[in-house]
Every structure is written in C-alpha cells, then in structure tokens.
Specification:
single chain, Aspartate Aminotransferase, domain 1, about 15% strand, binds pyridoxal-5'-phosphate, Phosphoserine aminotransferase, Pser_aminoTfrase, EC 2.6.1.52
C-alpha cells in the first residue's frame, strides 16, 4: 500500500527495518529502547545523537536550543503565549484550522491581533507577507508555515523587523532548508514528516528561555525547565525520539535538506503538473502558494470523489480522503513517500479520468 495520510504518516522503510532489527536487543544492551531507562548511557547517546544530527541537518545556530517535548503540536498553542507573551499581545496570521486553534488558545492569555487572513477564500492562499500591520506592542508574530489541510505554504516569510517570528512547521519541517535565524521559535509535531506521534521538536532562541512566564504556567509548560534538563526533566517519549534520530540520519544519508527539497519538488510537480492538465481533477490551493507536502484536490462532483476514493482504496492507495472539514481528496507526500508512490497514483488518476469522462 501507498500511505498518503496527513499524519501519522508514512516513515522511511529503511528506518523501520533498522528499528525492527534492534527491537529486542538494542546494540547489545539486551533490551529494547522501549524498555530502557531514560537516564541510561545508551539513551543519553540516542537523544544526544538525535539532537546532533538535527543541528547538522538544519544548521541550527549555537544560540538556539533544541527541545524534544510532548503534548502534540497543539500544546505549543498554549506554551507559546504562556512563555512569550510578556506584553500580553501577539499578532497572528490566520491561514487555516491550525492557526484557528492557535489563535483561540492564545486568546486565553492575552490580546490577539489577526493581522492577515486568507479566510475570505477558504484558506486557499497565503496572505501578502510584505507591509504587514505589525502591532507595536506585539510580543511575537505567529504563522503556520505549511497548512496541512489546505495545502498552502509560505515561500517567503513575513517581514517582522526586530519582532519575533514564531512558526508551526509540523507538516513541513525537514522538507527543505530553512534559515533558523529568522525565527524566535519553530515547533513541529513530528508525526508527519519526522517520526512517530508523541514527540514535538521545539527550536527556540536561547534568550527567549526565561523564568519570566505568565503567572500560573505549569512547570511542564515552561521551556526553561526542559532546556535546563536537556529535555529529560521527566520521562521523555524515548522510543519516539529514537526513531526521529534515525529519520534525521536517513535524511543525512540522502544528502541533507537541499537534496530532500529536490526530491520533494520532483514528487510535487508530478502531481501538480497532472492536476493542471486534467479536465477532471483540480488542485484547490493557489499556484504560488502550493505546498510540497500536502496536495488537496477535487473533481466537480461529490459522486465522482466518492467513486475515486473507493477505487483508489481497493488498489492500495490509502488515506486519500480530504480533511473532514473540507472534503474532496488530499495526497500527503511527505519525505518518506517514494517518487514511485506519486507516479503510481498519477497513473491511476489518469486511468480513472479516461474511464469516467463524460
Ligand atoms: N499544526 C499543524 C500544521 C498540523 O498539521 C497539526 C496536525 O495534526 C497540528 C498542528 C496539531 O498537531 P497535534 O495533533 O500533534 O497536536
């Protein structure tokens, strides 16, 4: 089967095979990584190496900390305002379901200004990033870098001057190179492009990690407690971190993020080129803002959508149904989706189109 799920999603087969080999006896320890103490030497090495590989891959500057946390990406929706809203004001750019949730959460802690939005056209595009009306007293500007549901992504990031930029990169982290120095904080729930559900990677500039958090912020929701304890304040999602470490190494073995970007562009253009030429299927995101990771598309009738999904499933194309809030179809083609998977899908779409032409 080819798994086009938006998350949890396909992982590299080589990573899963290696993990299976080590399942019962991790490097002569006589136990699985699932069973070992997070204070053991073996696990310290696993988490240390995972951080090292991630730093190399993304070229994370020395003045940024990497944290491996829990609570899903959704917990960051609260942790960010609790830790960064010193003036109790933040600017959000609204581009879909995930910024909607982030905005609702931030409103519990301070004033939220929605300084740009693409809600007028069902979030099918990214608002202009130049000449934004950034609030003088905003503690940060928040974006969702890749909108998993609507299939849009920022090609240029907002110009925020000396104001902090915070980005949710849950669905595109490690799909292409990024310049970390442009951000104050980046976070990603790993279950899309990086690893198994249960781990959230946070990359945060060191000076933002302080004791000065909103009153009542629980210990577990303070970046400082996790930074001071190298992500080992409490029991971490150990097995998940171990798999993430393997995925980082897998990307390194392919040539790093530049190479990954090329492969992702190749895969995405196979699908987009076909969508642009088809008279049955249509991509729903604005061309200039198309995601390399999530490709939503529709036909002009719900009946055809249902027929397509049914036939696709029977052939082993899994999880092509669009998000429950938007309908239609969506192919998520994360790093671990092989080029062959996208080619095979497009071949099937062509065949379906020929067979079902009016
Ligand atoms: N942000 C984005 C961009 C997502 O795609 C998701 C998807 O689930 C989330 C946040 C929420 O992640 P989680 O389920 O880990 O809380």
């Amino acid at each position: 089967a080819y798994n086009f799920s938006a998350g949890p999603a396909v992982l590299p087969e080589a990573v899963l095979r290696e993990a299976a080999e080590e399942m019962l006896d991790y490097k002569g320890t006589g136990m699985s990584v699932m069973e070992m103490s997070h204070r053991s030497k073996a696990f310290e090495e696993i988490i240390g190496n995972a951080e090292k590989s991630l730093r190399e891959l993304v070229a994370i500057p020395d003045n940024y900390r990497v944290l491996f946390l829990q609570g899903g990406a959704s917990q960051q929706f609260a942790m960010i305002p609790m830790n960064l809203m010193k003036n109790k004001v933040a600017d959000y750019i609204h581009t879909g379901q995930w910024t909607k949730r982030a905005i609702a959460e931030a409103k519990m802690y301070g004033k939220v200004n929605v300084i740009a939005s693409s809600e007028d056209k069902t979030f099918s595009y990214i608002p202009e990033v130049k000449d934004l009306k950034i609030s003088d007293d905003a503690d940060y500007i928040y974006i969702c870098h890749n909108n998993t549901i609507y299939g849009t992504k920022y090609n240029d990031i907002p110009e925020t001057g000396d104001k902090l930029l915070v980005a949710d990169m849950s669905s595109d982290m490690l799909s292409e190179p990024i310049d970390v120095s442009k951000y104050g904080l980046i976070f990603a729930g790993v279950q899309k492009n990086i690893g198994p559900a249960g781990v959230v990677v946070v990359i945060i500039r060191e000076d933002l990690i302080t004791e000065d958090v909103l009153p009542g912020t629980p210990t577990m929701l303070r970046y400082k407690i996790h930074a001071d304890n190298d992500s080992l304040y409490n029991t971490p999602p150990a097995y998940g971190i171990y798999i993430c470490g393997k995925v980082f190494k897998w990307i390194q073995s392919l040539g790093g993020l530049e190479a990954m970007k090329k492969i992702n562009q190749e895969k995405a253009s196979i699908l987009y080129d076909y969508l642009d030429s088809s008279s049955m299927f249509k991509g729903t995101a604005a061309k200039k803002d198309r995601s390399l990771m999530n490709v939503p598309f529709i036909t002009d009738s719900e009946e055809l959508n249902v027929k397509f999904l049914k036939e696709a499933k029977a052939l082993g194309f899994e999880n092509l149904k669009g998000h429950r809030t938007v309908g239609g179809m969506r192919a998520s083609i994360y790093n671990a989706m092989p080029v062959e998977g996208v080619k095979t899908l497009v071949d099937f779409m062509k065949k379906f189109e020929a067979e079902n032409k009016k």
